[in-house]
Amino acid sequence: MAGSPTSLTLMYILWQLTGSAAPEAVKELVGPLGGAVTFPLMANVKQVDSIVWNFNTTLLVTMQPEVPTIIVTQNRNKERVSFLNGSYSLRLSELKKNDSGVYHAKIYSSSLQNPFTQNYVLHVYEHLSRPKVTMGLQSNKNGTCVTNLTCHMEHGGEDVIYTWKALGQAASETHNGSILPISWRRRESDMTFICFARNPISSNSSSPILASKLCEGAAGDPNPSMVLLCLLLVPCLLILFALGLFLWFIRRERQEENNPNGRSSKYSLFHSGNTQKDGKSPLTAHDARHTKAIYL
Ligand SMILES: *[C@@H]1O[C@H](CO)[C@@H](O)[C@H](O)[C@H]1NC(C)=O
Ligand SMILES: *[C@@H]1O[C@H](CO)[C@@H](O)[C@H](O)[C@H]1NC(C)=O
Ligand SMILES: *[C@@H]1O[C@H](CO)[C@@H](O)[C@H](O)[C@H]1NC(C)=O
Ligand SMILES: *[C@@H]1O[C@H](CO)[C@@H](O)[C@H](O)[C@H]1NC(C)=O
Ligand SMILES: *[C@@H]1O[C@H](CO)[C@@H](O)[C@H](O)[C@H]1NC(C)=O
Ligand SMILES: *[C@@H]1O[C@H](CO)[C@@H](O)[C@H](O)[C@H]1NC(C)=O
Ligand SMILES: *[C@@H]1O[C@H](CO)[C@@H](O)[C@H](O)[C@H]1NC(C)=O
């Protein structure tokens, strides 16, 4: 009964009446970049005159199974389109990114008032390569290393779901999302972090990251800005020191040059003081000896 042409026709008419979307629920398909996808088309239609496949708004393939002929509209698709044995299901290979979109198959038959339509949405995805991990700012207060690890794809990152696994000695934890907050005490046993990325057609994971490796950069307190400061300050101090030394030498040279004058001037000062005090009396032997004892 179900197979009788009249009941089928009735069903199709009903489908058409109830709205075109209901019977032809859109089929969601995914395909791997460079791979192949099959658009399943099953219809109990007697006397199929033709089947027309459209991609978005362009004509892709026309098929007349009774003749039989298959006409692929565009040359570049000739090698990519095929039909499985005796079926109406279209197979598209060598998938490209721009093959993503809406596909329609319409079956025309003299036994149908309206063509039978099946809609598809195809998403072409890349095979995921190894996800990359970047580390956020790190703080090392009180022997605890605190930072964020961010996982991302360098390309083909659409519809990617990220999860993290933190593997400790005792337990392992799973974290949803691309950002993993880390707080690791140095005294604790080491931990390993792995990022898993998956899209509808593939998955991949980062290489394992050790907490001790991650945190060793800032293990000692010299943080990069301090190192930079030292690198700038040390030469400055050295230059200042050299300059000071140089000036001191110059002064010493000058003093050495002026040394005899210096002595005599002091002597003469003393002497003149003497003479001023004692009027114009000449320097006595005692005075001379005294000054010698002081200045020589
Ligand atoms: C298609 O059918 C032919 C014979 O009709 C058979 O030799 C072949 O293996 C079939 N191919 C597939 C993919 O089923
Ligand atoms: C899709 O991209 C390929 C190259 O990767 C190009 O040859 C082709 O014309 C594009 N198709 C459409 C419909 O834009
Ligand atoms: C096909 O349509 C989809 C949206 O439905 C669009 O994103 C895509 O760019 C279209 N592709 C071409 C080749 O027109
Ligand atoms: C992960 O990606 C690398 C390239 O980045 C690739 O060599 C490897 O085969 C991929 N692993 C899986 C399981 O796909
Ligand atoms: C530092 O750690 C010690 C012991 O682990 C704790 O007693 C102290 O309160 C911590 N200090 C701060 C500022 O977190
Ligand atoms: C880690 O990321 C969260 C948001 O996800 C942010 O609030 C926090 O400040 C970040 N921590 C560090 C150390 O970057
Ligand atoms: C992570 O997400 C999955 C589903 O996406 C959920 O089942 C699981 O409970 C989540 N885990 C955490 C720790 O939030």
Which hetero ligands occur in this complex? 2-acetamido-2-deoxy-beta-D-glucopyranose
CATH hierarchy: architecture of the largest domain: Sandwich
Percentage of residues assigned to helices: 25-40%
How far the N terminus sits from the C terminus, by CA atoms, comes to: 141 Å
Mean pLDDT: 78
The level 1 CATH classification of the largest domain is: Mainly Beta
Our estimate of the beta-strand percent is 25-35%
Major sheet size, sense and barrel closure: 6 strands, mixed
Total domains:
3
Rg (CA only): 47 Å
Number of strands: 18
What is the name of the CATH topology of the largest domain? Immunoglobulin-like
Number of helices: 4
* Helix and strand composition category: alpha+beta
Query: Overall 3D geometry?
Result: elongated
Strand order of the largest sheet: 1-9-8-3-4-5
CATH superfamily of the largest domain: Immunoglobulins
Walk me through this protein's architecture.
It is a single chain. Strands 1-9-8-3-4-5 form a six-stranded mixed sheet, with no helix packed on it. Strands 13, 14, 16, 17 and 18 form a five-stranded antiparallel sheet that branches. About 30% of the residues lie in helices and about 35% in strands. The chain has about 300 residues and is an alpha+beta fold. A hairpin with a 6-residue loop joins β6 and β7 (about 90). It has four helices and 18 strands. It has helices at about 5-15, 210-215, 225-275, 285-295; strands at about 25-30, 35-40, 50-55, 60-65, 70, 80-85, 90, 100-110, 115-125, 130-135, 140, 145-150, 160-165, 170-175, 180-185, 190-200, 200-205, 210. It is elongated and about 125 Å long. One 2-acetamido-2-deoxy-beta-D-glucopyranose binds near residues 76 and 98.
